[in-house]
Amino acid sequence: MEKKEIRWGLLGAGQILNRWMKGAMQVDGMTIAAVASRTRETAEAMRRKFNIPEALTYEEMLAREDIDAVYIPVPHPFHKELALRAMRAGKAVLVEKPATVTAADFQELISCAREHQVFLMEAVWTRFFPMAEKIRSLICEDGIGEVRAVHTAFSSRIPDGAAGRLVDPYRAGGGLLDTGVYNFHFTDMILDKEPVALTGLASFDTDDMHLQVDEQAAYIAQYDRGELAVMTSGIRTEMPQNAYIYGTRGYIEVPVFWKPTRMNVFIGPETYTVECPVEQKIPGIEDEGFQYEIEYVNRCLREGRKEPEIMTWEKSLSVLRQCDQLRKQWGFRYPFE
User: Fold this and answer.
1) Is 97 a catalytic residue?
2) For 103-119, what is the mean pLDDT?
3) Cys-Cys with 10: which of 35, 110, 162, 271 at CB 3.0–4.6 Å?
4) Measuring CA to CA, which residue among 249, 189, 200, 248 is closest to residue 222?
5) In what order do the strands lie in the sheet with 228-234?
6) What is the pLDDT of residues 155-197, one digit of tens each?
7) What topology does CATH give the domain 130-277+318-330?
8) Residue-level pLDDT at 79
9) Could you confirm whether domain 6-125+286-306 is CATH 3.40.50.720?
């Protein structure tokens, strides 16, 4: 039977499209039918850049019956409204991470997806890399044993005087919802459960930029068997973006863990490296790995799934609950909350 062509709309023209589209170009059986933005001019610029057939307004896109799914690549606070509108229009939704700013907001998306019987998934691309399964396959007695601790760090230093989303509290800026969510998703990918305790500290307004968002943060989660996850995130501190998984027989190092293509394995005297580079099908177009989540969504749509089995709604809720909990400890609320 011929594979159904999935017709996508881009509901937003955020900068991440410049990377996501390189993944979409690698995927067979799909078409990017149109791109939409708040202004037709912005949509038109992205249309020309990627040779997309049409540039539309949001309203025009959602009225199109020939579009099966939409990808939402706009700043965090605008995810919920666009996702709700798309699902009410009968579209499947892939929404960038974090899917919403709070767990309560994501619960609204779940309710809407159920009511309108449409597919919904948070775009946590890390979970779909082939390396993710290779890592999990070593969490066994023939590998590194039982996991006792996970260390992750995802923090970079934006330039002095930088402007934009990352430093803007009205757009949910700061490290936690930008890089920190990767720490939680990766740890969940390894331990597959929610912590029983979580605590952390964050820094605000510590240098000449006078930022009113979390510049850097460190937090520790404890799990039901005593496992610990030590995590750091930030936008004003450069750190190696590596993960370490410590087991009872050895450990794994994952460089650039949020887009994993390599792991270094240490088990007793034995050390070795496993590599799984991203497949590139189009000369001159280099995808970082977005193709994997896109292929997965297309497969779910062809199979008629409404909730993904890998990036489940409960996992999205769990990570957002942890972010909510930390921000409550820090006394940090965004101005629009």
Assistant:
1) yes
2) 98
3) 35
4) 200
5) 197-203, 216-222, 228-234, 147-155, 243-247, 250-254, 262-267, 270-275
6) 999 999 999 999 999 999 999 999 999 999 999 999 999 999 9
7) Dihydrodipicolinate Reductase; domain 2 (3.30.360)
8) 98
9) yes
